[in-house]
Amino acid sequence: MGVTYIEGTARGPSGREAPARFLVDSGATYSLLPTEVWQQLGLEPTREHTFALAGGTMIRRQISRYYLVLPQGEDYTAVILGEPGDEALLGVVTLEILGLVLNPFSRTLHPMRMLLA
Question: How many other CB atoms sit within 10 Å of the CB of residue 108?
Answer without folding.
Answer: 14
